[in-house]
Design goal:
This protein is an all-alpha fold and 288 residues long. It contains eleven helices and two strands. A two-stranded antiparallel sheet has the order 1-2.
Length: 288
């Protein structure tokens, strides 16, 4: 069985590598210079090519899209100096990523502190569930970015407003999953604890919390995924620092290679965060 899983993993890795090579080959072919296209370029196209750092005298490319080689050079340049700080519009990717992760950590942490205890209350009390359910159902579908104008007006700080948006988008999956997990604890376990006259606090910490932990971790994993999606859009709006601001700033500089480097970095960091929560989820899972 173990040998079969290992063989499957190797075959999957090989297929992934083949798909990557095919994608790179297609990308390289799509961005090859078009013969004779330079002479046919209009004045506006030549000016646009020069803005992108391309020569308007040599062979023209099919588009301004960067080649795989240009993306590689751009990635190496950023990774070789991730902590540079030459002013507001020229910070390394390490600094920009650090600002984004800090905002996500603060907003997500605040959501955990509020939603997990509140989810316990809602899950353990049918009265609290009925009282809070209308508010949850109305507030849950609202896009987190819709809160941004109110946050900017009230908090009057763009960075703190970004943290607030992360808090808003994280709190609902956490609250719903925690209350569902608590409400789904097997009645037999609760009855046994009550028969043994286990105190309420001990019941919550030693019976309900371990039983609901996998569902709570699922809510945390979903919340973190949403938070990492939302922080990019939020930082494009608030500006200043962060990986989302970096993407928008490089687009304004017409540097698509830098934009693609940032997109790849966002994807890698999102995958690492998801894997971390998946590992935590496996730690608290149990066979029922």
């Amino acid at each position: 069985m173990k040998a079969q899983r290992r063989a499957l993993a190797w075959r999957a890795a090989g297929l992934s590598l083949l798909l990557l090579l095919a994608l790179l080959a297609l990308w390289h072919w799509a961005t090859l210079p078009a013969a004779g296209a330079a002479a046919a370029m209009t004045a506006e196209q030549r000016e646009y090519a020069e803005l992108l750092g391309q020569s308007s005298e040599g062979p023209a490319r099919n588009s301004g899209f960067p080649t795989p080689a240009e993306l590689g050079r751009s990635a190496l340049q950023h990774l070789s100096d991730p902590w540079r700080d030459n002013g507001p519009n020229d910070k390394g990717l390490g600094i920009q990523l650090g600002h984004s992760l800090l905002r996500v950590a603060l907003g997500f942490g605040a959501a955990v502190l509020l939603a997990v205890p509140l989810g316990f209350l809602v899950g353990m009390s049918p009265l609290a569930l009925r009282a809070l359910d209308p508010y949850i159902q109305v507030l849950k579908p609202i896009s987190p970015l819709a809160w941004m104008p109110l946050a900017l007006y009230t908090i009057r700080d763009s960075s703190a407003s970004g943290v607030f948006v992360i808090f808003i988008c994280s709190v609902w999956p956490l609250l719903i999953n925690t209350s569902f997990g608590v409400a789904s604890v097997r009645r037999e376990w609760l009855d046994v604890a009550r028969t043994l006259e286990v105190p309420r606090g001990r019941l919550a910490l030693q019976v309900i919390l371990p039983a609901a932990a996998p569902t709570i971790l699922t809510g945390m994993r979903i919340s973190m995924g949403i938070a990492w999606l939302v922080i990019v859009a939020a930082e494009m709006l608030v500006g200043g620092t962060g990986i989302g601001y970096f993407v928008w700033n490089e687009w304004n500089n017409l540097s698509l290679a830098n934009v693609m480097v940032a997109i790849l970095l966002i994807g890698v960091v999102g995958m690492v965060l998801d894997r971390l929560f998946a590992a935590l989820q496996r730690k608290v899972s149990y066979a029922d």
